[in-house]
Amino acid sequence: MCNLYSNTTAQEAMRQLFKVAPGNDLLGNAEPLTAIWPKYQGHVVRLNPDGVNELVSLSWGFRTTNTSKKTGKTLQPSAWNNARDDKLLTSGLWKGSFQERRCLIPATSFCEAKGRNPATYHWFGLTGDEPRPAFAFAGLWTVSHFEGPDGKEECACYTMITTRSNELVKPIHPDRMPAMLAPKDYAQWMNGTASEAHELLRPYPADAMQVLKSGETEKSDAV
To answer: Is the preceding peptide bond at 133 cis, omega within 30 degrees of 0?
Structure first.
């Protein structure tokens, strides 16, 4: 389960990597994001109504109504920041978005924790000529409608898909890791059928990844 990642890719580099025309870049003056948490804003590439890639800022985590079991009072909404690849075709929370609203989540690293009291935090990224090569997670987006403490609310948001861990991540998180996509697969993920998209959800090759920083006992920004 991933609860923290970074995206420090320059805005122009994102446009080039994800084939976004300047007029479809809706980020404004985007700053590097060294630590993106659930319910925070992140950069997302999605299809606009004309079927063309656009860059937008959305909130991380599909929202649902959250009610106290003890008092029945409506609390702050739950944020579902990870979607399992084996639940996409059956879960009511994910199914519609997987079929109709897939997206790419630009990133340069992600963090996984191991143990408790204290946990140790490990940052992962790609190998390459650059210090922090850009890549993309497979994602979904939606506009969540829910009840909040002050009544009905809505939120434009996204979630990150997880798959089985590869050999690099497995010692830290033995079960799951974010589903990462190679550039050659971006178009299939965005424009393919649900079946074609699902074929891409597999562990990223471990030999193409590296541990960027590890051993921290407190959550911190990526290096």
So the answer is: no
Amino acid identity of residue 164, one-letter, is R
The CATH code of the domain that includes 24 is 3.90.1680.10
DSSP class of 186? H
Give a yes or no: residue 155 inside a domain: yes
Tokens of 174: 């033995």
CA distance 47 to 85: 21
User: At 114, is the pLDDT very low, low, confident or very high (cuts 50, 70, 90)?
Assistant: confident
Which phi and psi angles does 48 have, rounded to 5°?
-80, 180
Can you tell me the mean pLDDT for 119-143? 93
User: pLDDT at residue 62 above 70?
Assistant: yes
* Both structure tokens of 90: 């059956």
Total count of domains within the chain: 1
The model's pTM is: 0.94
Does any domain span residue 221? no
- pLDDT tier, 130 (very low <50, low <70, confident <90, very high otherwise): confident
Burial (CB < 10 A; 0-12, 13-18, 19+), residue 167, is exposed
The closest of 146, 163, 181 to 67, measured between CA atoms, is: 146
